[in-house]
Structure formats: C-alpha cells, structure tokens
Design goal:
Elements: H1 6-18, H2 22-31, H3 42-64, E1 77-81, E2 86-90, H4 95-102, E3 105-107, E4 110-112, E5 118-121, E6 125-129, E7 134-138, H5 142-159, H6 176-183, E8 196-200, E9 203-209, H7 214-221, E10 232-237, H8 255-262
Parallel strand pairs: 2-7, 9-10
Antiparallel strand pairs: 1-2, 3-4, 5-6, 6-7, 8-9
Helix pairs in contact: 1-2, 3-4, 3-6, 4-5
Length: 273
C-alpha cells in the first residue's frame, strides 16, 4: 500500500481535532498558512469562546429531549471548520437549544445571551454575527432556522423571558483565546458523554465523562502543530452507569414540538413515556 502524502497525513491528524471529512481537511491543510489556525482577532476569539460555553449548555438540554437520556453522548457541535471564518456543523436537534443560549434576552432582570448578536440568512447556511466577528452554521437553511426559532420562542414563553429586543450580556469572557482554541479542537471529545468547559481565573477548566483519557487529551493539546499553548485544566470523570430518572422524562414539551424534535424516535407524550 502506498504511503500517504504529507498533506494526507496532516489532514488525517487535523480531522481528529475537528471532525472534518477529507474534502474539507485536505484543501485546508494544503492551502492554509497553518494546519489548524487560531482566530486572529479578539472580537472573533470572544465570540467563539461564548459559542463554546453556549454549546455546552445546549448539550444539557439535548439530554432532556425525547427520549431523555444521559447514557447516549450529547454534543451541540458535530464538526468544526477552523478558518478565517469559523464554520460549525451542528448535531441533530442542537440548533434550537444553541440559539436559545446565544441570542440576546433578558431573563429574571439579567441580560443573557450575546449582546448585539444578529442573524444573517443564506441559502444553505446561517451566520450569527456581532458585526466585527461571526460564526457560520453550515447546513442551516431558512427552514431549519425557522424550526430552531420555534424552539426559542417556546423556551421564552416557558421560562418567562421578559423581552428579546436588545438585552443580552456584553461582558467579556476571560481568556477568550483559550475558549476559541478549544472550540476549534472540540472533536477531541466526541466520544465522551458530554463536555463542560468554562473559564476559571487565568485558565479554562474542561471536564468530560467517559471517552478519551486525560493523558490522551493532554498529549493532543500539546501537539506542536495541532495543539495549543493555552492554560487548560482537564479532568475526566466516569461515564454515567444509570440513565435519567423518570422525573426527567416529564419535561413539558408541547405536543406539536415533541413530534418535530423526535424525528422518528419514540415520542415522549404521557402515554408513551
């Protein structure tokens, strides 16, 4: 068997960090200045770090979606394409929970979501932008966006969100370059049950159950070409051995929304729980 070219070897290695397919990774490695580039502006780093935190929170809601389970892996992001403009491919049903976490709102008197975040719709993708930074959601066409916003509107009503015009949180996130670097390498944790990442002081803390060992993650984060020199504290915990209690399966999904989110999986209406 012929040896892979250097480009192919680098592309295969990049894919372990990003989840890209070969048609995405090979041109990026061949034509880019860096094999896995970092964000180049503070505005972009800030937005990407906020996307990572929002994605971790959104994954928690995915675990409640029917059929509710903490046994199956739950991740908001399936693939990341790290370039000058970051492109994210979302997991099934993740758009609504992600948008709820990101879009500006006022809840309980506090601004939440990313202040000033706006939506631009394209034929086969959507972009969330603050004007000086943006992230593209690949494959999110107008129909998908409308379905995601249906979820957001229901969550606003369910939780009593006061208003969504303006609002949001404009606080800067600490050590944003670290959060951005983690997002661009988020596929390292795709075998874990979930991922939690947040800034703590001058470092970021990352925790996950099951999946890769701590030493494996440290080694990959320390790779001279694909890793990062940012200060990251990692901790692996045991994967859950038992599924959620019955009480978690009674989250009050509206009847019409349950049919939309199950996408062919068992419904979670009272008679079918």
């Amino acid at each position: 068997m012929a040896r892979l070219s250097t480009t192919d070897q680098l592309a295969d290695l990049r894919r372990t960090y990003t989840g890209e397919n070969l048609s995405q990774a090979v041109p990026a490695v061949r034509d880019g200045d860096a094999v896995l580039p970092d964000a180049t502006t503070e505005a972009q780093r800030q937005l990407e770090a906020k996307f990572l935190v929002a994605g971790c929170a959104a994954a928690s809601m995915l675990q409640l979606m029917p059929p509710a389970s903490i046994i199956r892996p739950a991740h908001a992001f399936r693939t990341v394409e790290p370039g000058e403009t970051l492109r994210l491919h979302l997991s099934d049903r993740a758009l609504g929970p992600l948008l709820f976490e990101l879009l500006p709102r006022t809840e309980g008197g506090f601004g939440m979501g990313v202040a000033g975040l706006e939506h631009r719709q394209y034929r086969r993708s959507a972009e969330l932008t603050t004007g000086d930074a943006g992230v593209v959601l690949a494959g999110v066409d107008e129909r998908a966006w409308d379905l995601g916003m249906r979820y957001v509107r229901w969550m606003h009503e369910h939780r009593g969100v006061e208003y969504t015009e303006g609002g949001g949180n404009d606080d800067e996130i600490a050590e944003s370059a670290t959060g951005s670097a983690l997002l661009r390498r988020v596929h390292l944790w795709h075998d874990a049950s979930w991922l939690r990442a947040l800034p703590m002081g001058g470092a970021w803390f990352v925790e996950w159950p099951g999946g890769p060992a701590e030493d494996e993650i440290r080694q990959k984060l320390g790779h001279p070409d694909f890793g990062t020199t940012r200060d990251i504290t990692v901790r692996r915990i045991d994967a859950p051995a038992e599924d959620v209690e019955e009480g978690m399966r009674t989250y009050p999904w509206p009847e019409e929304f349950v049919s939309a989110v199950t996408a062919g999986q068992p419904d979670q209406r009272p008679g079918r729980r």
